[in-house]
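Run log, item B.
One chain of 251 residues. Sequence copied directly from the ordering sheet:
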Amino acid sequence: MIRFFANPLDISAKSIRLNEEDSKHIRSLRLRPDEQITVCDGVGYDYVCKLGERYDGTNVDIIEKNRSFSEPTVRCRGCIAFSKGDRLDYAVQKSVELGVFEIILFESERCVAVPNNIPKKIERLQRIAFETAKQSGRGIIPVVSSGGNFEEMLDQAVSNSALSVLFYECEDQLHIKDIFEQHFLPADGSKNGEIKPVSLITGPEGGFEPFEVELAKSKDIKIVSLGPRILRSETAPIVALSAIMYQTGNL
């Protein structure tokens, strides 16, 4: 079913007002009055709608309202270091597909490239998140933002999560399987209700500096390995998200 997002303020008891872009899209599809579409309010609810006989080009009739079944039970915050080229595009797109709740981009000591115009870069990535959310059937549009420098990002991760994990290629004691089994075993309630928020921190092309890892440790952030192979900066967040979604029954 074709999917659109609408501002909650444009949703009434019986109808939803679509924005101009979506209205044009519907007209181009030449839908019949009885054909159904899905409109999401961006905060977790889906509305099954139809154009209706009196379709005026913007308002669609609500048939039923349901909680979005596609949203994970765990809120994962992806903290991803700036990287060069289109690597961030890929990381953001795939993170949204996998169910990330929010994406925070940050500057790290070994970042190869930091955008000259960060707000413009964020705007572009937010558009990618929006389009991906529509295509993958998400119930929310994950927010993409800048977390500032490394320490500022760490403070955000810790203050907004019950568990914060930094993935480091030189870690050889604590592995991703260990940390997620400790915190998300079914016996601990991972299959019942919403799981507490988690922040997943991945580095740039050159990895993290040792002093950055020590700073993370001082803030009670877990330092974890993603395995014996060196992963690219755009691959690491996807692997980490996939692992936690699997462990918590969301994959």
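Observations after the first pass:
- The mean pLDDT is 89.
- The radius of gyration is 20 Å.
Flagged for discussion on Thursday.
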